[in-house]
Amino acid sequence: MAELQVNCLYDFDGDELNGELSFSSGEILNIIRQDIGDGWWEARSQDGRQGLVPETYVEVISAPEPQFPPPPPPMVAEPAFTSNGSSGHHQAGPPPQTQPQQSFDDWDDDWDDDDDGSSNSTGGASQQVGGQCDLAGQGNFGLAAATRREGKQISPGSEMSKYGTVKSSFNRFSHFAKSGGEAFLMGQGEERVSDSDKIRIIETDDGMVWLNQDAAYTCTVTSPKKESKMKGLKSYIAYQLTPSVSSNEFVCIAWTSLYNYLIFSFCIFFHFCLRLFVEVKWRYESEFVQERMRQLQYWVNRMVRHPVISRSDVLHHFLTCTDDKKWKVGKRKAEKDEFQGAKFFQLVEPPNRALEPRDIEGKMENFCKFVLNMTENVKTLITVHHDYAKKQLGPFKREYSKIGNSLKHLAQTFNMDATPHSGGLTAAIDYTGDAYNEIGEMFEKQPPREAYPLIEALYEYKGILQTYPEVLKVHEGAIGRAKECIKAQEEGKMNETEVTSVLTRADTISYATLAEMNNFQRDRVIDFKSMMQQYLREQIDFYKNLTEKLETALHHYDNA
Question: CA-to-CA distance for 426 and 416, rounded, in angstroms?
């Protein structure tokens, strides 16, 4: 049977350690397997490279030819096509179109389905990660790519439009309109908002920021455990949660459902990056399980410290609910949330001050350049540290071992001289050889302590940065629509009151965009400070231990 061919929609830098295949936009791949799971396929490139690719990054361009005899002579009646794309006379159907993304109505099945990759029991239940999900992680945590709902995933390296957002093959303004952005600007479908639900933005010396209206809390992901269901037919890894806002030590959480809900509710504006791992044969090995747990912890940390997402009722419900009946009630309430998509902006209460358009455009353009440059910087850091880790595992260990073994051989030769005055020197050289061999082993063990944690955090940021052009596109759509309304007023098609209302709502989107930009910069400072401190501490400890070994070896020559 002929292999399925796909066209690559975006650039993808795969993680070779996890068996991923890197490719460029416009490249043609042959799909080998589509049953990998979790939104991944196995593909082969034109130059023979083989690996895993995210299915949302590719588009089917041809279907495999069916293996059956040629059709009989043409019939008078036109053959009816079956649902699988082939006719009743076994004629090959047209190439399949890209499947639409799952709607929110479909998630009801995911939340109730016992096969959604999660266990929903009370009294300290644990949940699986890695069920059905339309994903990316960061990569994210490489992780990572965000779910495509109304449009395709973007690549920061692509051609940029006015504010640095990506020019893609589909209508981004249509995405803005479909998500409710235009309806919000025009004042359609307004809902009453209680004071307790309002999300306030305040102006500080650092610019616009989300007001932290609730007490901060934390949540830890621990205790990975292999579990099974369907009488052992399906196995998965469950993790336990301990949120600081609950007295329960272990809390039930359906990871996939939570992620999908947050994506659907906030995807128009906020960034989400969770690098879910592919279901592969070694997924239960200890290192893989621990790495996945770290990735989940990164994502949970980001969610609970975000000033808007952290106070989401559905997030609190998923983190704290252990009662089946209350779980169902909370689930239904989440499904009926009136402020999803662009309706979220109805909750935003910005400062009562009109913004200067030129000032906003300048800030957006500057932030876009920042995102582009940081994206390239992060990619470079990942490559550099990945290469350095490979050298630590291979060449560095090998070269130090060569030095150590050569000194050991020299000591063996010197040991042939049995005179008393030679014994001390021989022993010192032999000890030095052992020291260099141990240093080589130290280099081999160093990447998991030093390079790998940094690379993981950089992969997460790589995934987050890839979502920001989409966030800026929402703002650009709002500004563009506002300018159209101003022009309509000049032409007498809209009155001043209507246009003023549109501009006020456009300012709300601008305020929210500025607040989220500043929130990103605040998180970036916190994260990179922690990342570099950990990285340097590990390097300092490593070279201290290395120096101690050399100093100890040196002291052996004092009495030689």
Answer: 10
